[in-house]
């Protein structure tokens, strides 16, 4: 064998080993990419699950608070938080869907999400209804405590209905009364808690 043939053989062997290294690098980078994608999918799934868990926890808190009309202020605050948590859950779900590649996975997640979303919307309507009923109850309590009877309220509202200025003033006064009742109720609850301690 000549020196030329030996040099060519060595170059050929080097190129072959370089090709093998390149193929190895390619499969390693592909595995790394898949691992990174799997991590992204797992992280986004966990974020969605965590967001849903927070919604469920807030719903349970609201259920407990709605057991007593005197917790109106707590229910209103928790309801605002629930809306924010539902929005966070929806955003986490949307982000998770963007990384799913299998159509069956997407369909399954969509079905699950739609069920949870329907349940959350129904619950939110129940809370809104409870808030309105509780405000009405507290208004009636306040009116009976202040000596304003229903007939007096009806007479005022029938005269005020023809004048929008009086109507809006009356509405503002009612909102103020509701706030006062909420504060008084909160003070009563605090006094009860202090007496228990």
Task: Explain how this protein is built.
The mean pLDDT is 77. The protein is elongated. With 197 residues, the protein is mostly helical. It contains five helices and no strands. The protein starts with a helix and ends with a helix. The chain has one domain (36-152, 164-196). Helix 1 (3-65) runs antiparallel to helix 2, helix 2 packs antiparallel against helix 3 and helix 3 (103-146) crosses helix 5.
Number of helices: 5
Shape: elongated
Percent of residues in helices comes to over 70%
Mean pLDDT, all residues: 77
What is the string of helix and strand elements?
A: HHHHH
The domain count comes to 1
Q: Helix- and strand-based class?
A: mainly alpha
Cα radius of gyration in angstroms: 33 Å
Low-confidence spans: pLDDT under 50, at least 5 residues? none
Proportion of residues in β-strands: under 5%
Distance between the termini: 102 Å
Largest sheet, if any? none
Task: Work out the number of β strands.
Answer: 0
Please sum up the structure shown:
This protein has 197 residues and is mainly α. Helices cover 91% and strands 0% of the residues. It starts with a helix and ends with a helix.
Salient structural properties:
91% helix, elongated, 0% strand, mainly alpha, 197 residues
Please give the structural blueprint.
Blueprint: H1 3-65, H2 72-99, H3 103-146, H4 150-160, H5 164-196
Helix pairs in contact: 1-2, 2-3, 3-5
């Amino acid at each position: 064998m000549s020196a030329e043939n030996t040099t060519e053989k060595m170059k050929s062997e080097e190129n072959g080993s370089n090709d093998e290294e390149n193929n190895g690098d390619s499969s390693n980078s592909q595995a790394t990419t898949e691992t990174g994608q799997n991590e992204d999918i797992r992280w986004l799934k966990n974020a969605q699950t965590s967001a849903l868990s927070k919604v469920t926890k807030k719903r349970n808190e609201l259920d407990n608070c709605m057991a007593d009309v005197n917790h109106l202020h707590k229910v209103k605050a928790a309801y605002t938080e629930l809306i924010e948590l539902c929005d966070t859950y929806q955003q986490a779900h949307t982000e998770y869907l963007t990384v799913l590649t299998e159509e069956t996975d997407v369909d399954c997640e969509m079905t699950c999400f739609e069920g949870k979303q329907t349940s959350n919307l129904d619950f939110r309507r129940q809370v809104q209804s409870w808030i309105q009923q509780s405000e009405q109850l507290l208004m009636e309590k306040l009116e009976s405590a202040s000596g304003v009877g229903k007939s007096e309220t009806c007479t005022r509202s029938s005269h005020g209905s023809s004048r929008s200025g009086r109507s809006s003033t009356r509405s503002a006064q009612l909102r103020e009364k509701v706030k006062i009742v909420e504060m008084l109720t909160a003070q009563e609850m605090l006094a009860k808690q202090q007496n228990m301690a």
